[in-house]
């Protein structure tokens, strides 16, 4: 096998976006930070030609019986199998995903006899279930299958699962090999390789569809909500979310205080009392009647003293040029002190680019939370809007998006993103202005919140410090139950 040609193909797959990083829902029901979409190669004849040559050579190299039929797993592998069939001059079969309801009603197309051997061709393997589906259908027609050729093995249990069913899997590429190729070429950083490797190691899929988590078998539980903050910090793409996840783990707090008061002195006095129990202080500085630079400096001092981050709940929602001015200029100069800001996704990706353009100092680490859902009754954030927001969060300026504001446990899947959920009270209900509230346990375990926003539950308490401590303890206990760790 020509290793130079193999590495060049690996880099080419990355260049044409057939191999990419982000947050992707997999067929097996979990999310992955890396995704292969080999369907795009049909638009690149040079890639198809090189891949066909390498696979044909690979088949000869592993000494698979050449007197067999070829069958591509439908549908992505069909073009690849067809080209190999032509180049190697081997007969090909086509397995339908469902039997025809007319004519011969065949499940397998092509000329063959019972007892003939068939070599499976597949593009990408995670659990191996697609290979085994094809194998079962072909075996039901009397064909003999002992081997499968795969372009990419994600190394998540597929080889073992197919082996258990009597099918040896031979891969041209493995995920770890491709990661190292990209690392050597300077396309990705070492930390990316380590983070993906750690994620994949924790996402081994067994033949019965269960997953392995910390050496224990769990059914469909490998998700953002089921992982610890420490583990998720390794996967975060945004430096601020990485630091916040570490902060939350060390401080044992998921409490965000909404300091919606109008006097700077009242805010500072409140923060001095509750600072030890919060991970984020959320402000609305445009309601502070006596806002000043000294107020900001005092806030920053308290944040450093009590180890929490500052979030300005500005909800930017304008074109890039305007939000850049709102973020960096004017009376508040938000970019100079707020670690985090909230942003509406309605304007599109330009709002992120506008905000990011203000950050000219590389040492100034900042992040945003995109609003995907709201907690108020009758809000207009549709499912389509939320889905589009998540696409922005995982595909646009991913090093700048720290998390998402939402109310649903299944919306934020990528472990490196944080879910912030407002509307938390020790006792749930609805206020006079249509704001919904849920208990700490419900918001964490049912809604999937990582950071929980509490405002009036603390602000109106007789003893604000005791109230903050109670919220912090109940929220943290709920998180520990969610990820199945003991305190």
From TrEMBL:
Keywords from the named record: Decarboxylase, Glycosyltransferase, Lyase, Multifunctional enzyme, Pyrimidine biosynthesis, Transferase
Regions crossing the membrane: none
A family per Pfam: OMPdecase
Family affiliation: In the C-terminal section; belongs to the OMP decarboxylase family. In the N-terminal section; belongs to the purine/pyrimidine phosphoribosyltransferase family.
InterPro entries in alphabetical order: Aldolase_TIM (IPR013785), OMPdecase (IPR014732), OMPdecase_AS (IPR018089), OMPdeCOase_dom (IPR001754), OPRT (IPR023031), Or_phspho_trans_dom (IPR004467), PRTase-like (IPR029057), PRTase_dom (IPR000836)
Protein's pathway: Pyrimidine metabolism; UMP biosynthesis via de novo pathway; UMP from orotate: step 2/2; Pyrimidine metabolism; UMP biosynthesis via de novo pathway; UMP from orotate: step 1/2
PROSITE patterns noted in UniProt: OMPDECASE
Entry keyword Cell membrane: no
CDD domains according to UniProt: OMP_decarboxylase_like, PRTases_typeI
Official protein name in the record: Uridine 5'-monophosphate synthase
Enzyme nomenclature, EC number: 2.4.2.10, 4.1.1.23
UniProt cross-references to SMART domains, sorted A to Z: OMPdecase (SM00934)
PANTHER family the UniProt entry points to: OROTATE PHOSPHORIBOSYLTRANSFERASE, URIDINE 5'-MONOPHOSPHATE SYNTHASE
Stretches assigned to the Orotidine 5'-phosphate decarboxylase domain: 254-471
């Amino acid at each position: 096998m020509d290793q130079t040609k193999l590495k060049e193909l690996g880099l080419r797959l990355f260049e044409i976006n057939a191999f990419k990083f982000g947050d992707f829902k997999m067929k097996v029901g979990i999310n992955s930070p890396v995704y292969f979409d080999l369907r795009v190669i049909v638009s690149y004849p040079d890639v198809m030609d090189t891949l066909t040559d390498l696979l044909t050579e690979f088949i000869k190299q592993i000494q698979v019986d050449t007197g067999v039929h070829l069958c591509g797993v439908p549908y992505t592998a069909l073009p690849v199998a067809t080209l190999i069939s032509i180049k190697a001059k081997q007969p090909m079969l086509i397995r339908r995903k469902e039997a025809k309801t007319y004519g011969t009603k065949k499940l397998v197309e092509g000329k063959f006899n019972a007892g003939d051997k068939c070599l499976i061709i597949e593009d990408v393997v995670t659990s191996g279930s697609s290979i085994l589906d094809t194998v079962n259908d072909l075996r039901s027609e009397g064909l003999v299958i002992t081997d499968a050729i795969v372009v990419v093995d994600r190394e998540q249990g597929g080889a073992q699962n197919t082996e258990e069913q009597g099918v040896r899997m031979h891969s041209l590429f493995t995920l770890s090999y491709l990661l190292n190729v990209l690392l050597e070429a300077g396309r990705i950083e070492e930390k990316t390789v380590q983070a993906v490797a750690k994620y994949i190691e924790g996402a081994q899929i067994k033949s019965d569809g269960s997953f392995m988590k910390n050496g224990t078998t769990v059914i469909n539980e490998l998700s953002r909500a089921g992982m610890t903050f420490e583990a998720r910090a390794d996967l975060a793409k945004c430096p601020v979310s990485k630091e916040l996840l570490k902060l939350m783990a060390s401080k044992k707090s998921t409490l965000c205080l909404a300091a919606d008061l109008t006097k700077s002195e009242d805010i500072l006095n409140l923060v001095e009392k509750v600072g030890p129990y919060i991970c984020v202080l959320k402000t609305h500085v445009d309601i502070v009647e006596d806002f000043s630079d000294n107020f900001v400096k005092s806030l920053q001092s308290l944040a450093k003293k009590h180890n929490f981050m500052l979030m300005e709940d500005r909800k930017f929602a304008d074109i890039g040029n305007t939000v850049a001015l709102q973020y960096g200029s004017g009376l508040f100069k938000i970019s100079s002190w707020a670690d985090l800001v909230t942003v509406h996704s309605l304007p599109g990706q330009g709002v992120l680019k506008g905000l990011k353009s203000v950050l000219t100092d590389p040492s100034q680490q900042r992040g945003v939370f995109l609003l995907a859902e709201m907690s108020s009754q009758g809000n207009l954030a549709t499912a389509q809007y939320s889905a589009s927001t998540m696409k922005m969060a995982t595909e646009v300026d991913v090093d700048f998006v720290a998390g998402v504001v939402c109310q649903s446990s299944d919306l934020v899947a990528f472990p490196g993103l944080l879910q912030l959920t407002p509307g938390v009270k020790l006792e749930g209900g609805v206020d006079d202005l249509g704001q919904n509230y849920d208990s700490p346990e419900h918001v964490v375990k049912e809604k999937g919140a990582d950071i929980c926003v509490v405002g009036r539950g603390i602000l109106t308490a007789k003893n604000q410090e005791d109230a903050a401590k109670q919220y912090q303890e109940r929220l943290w206990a709920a998180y520990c139950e969610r990820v199945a760790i003991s305190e």
